[in-house]
Amino acid sequence: MSKDEKKKIDTDSNIIYVGNKPPMNYVTAIMALLNSGNFTEVVIKARGNAISRAVDAAEITHNRFLTNAEVKSIDIGTETVTNEDGRKSNVSSIEICLAMKKTDG
Amino acid sequence: MSKDEKKKIDTDSNIIYVGNKPPMNYVTAIMALLNSGNFTEVVIKARGNAISRAVDAAEITHNRFLTNAEVKSIDIGTETVTNEDGRKSNVSSIEICLAMKKTDG
Lengths: 105, 105
Description:
The structure is a homodimer. Chain A is α+β, with helices and mostly antiparallel strands.
């Protein structure tokens, strides 16, 4: 696999998983997906403490960079995760769908 | 003001502000409001890192305690806050509306 191929964002999926990196990392990933021309919407997913970062990334994207994008839907839920020591615990999750506004013509 | 009055939850408002306390504190506050009979829905608000705790509180409430409550709507936004040193910064916010399901009859 060449370097170029490695750097390419996986354009088969329009899902961005938000973790512990700075919010701007996810903002650039969201913008790359929306500007690729393959998708008119992205789904931003996060669990636990990363939920607030997912909201940050969505807000920064459509307030500062892609003002023609809008929050289409938000969904919250609970997922069961198995810890390293085998115990199960519940963790909250969020899915934010960010879509490009339809333009006339 | 008597002790009893102090303990009473402010039943004029159906807004719960989520901060840095453990999620269960907010769960009990939500349940108290919904069980008071004054409101059929509560609005759970949070900013910044507390956003994930607000989602936790909403999820715990309707999954474990009030299974006849449901998430009616979720809204995210950005608020401008002035820091202690006078600088302004943006912070993400969330509003989760939790409502009792309508029962027949």
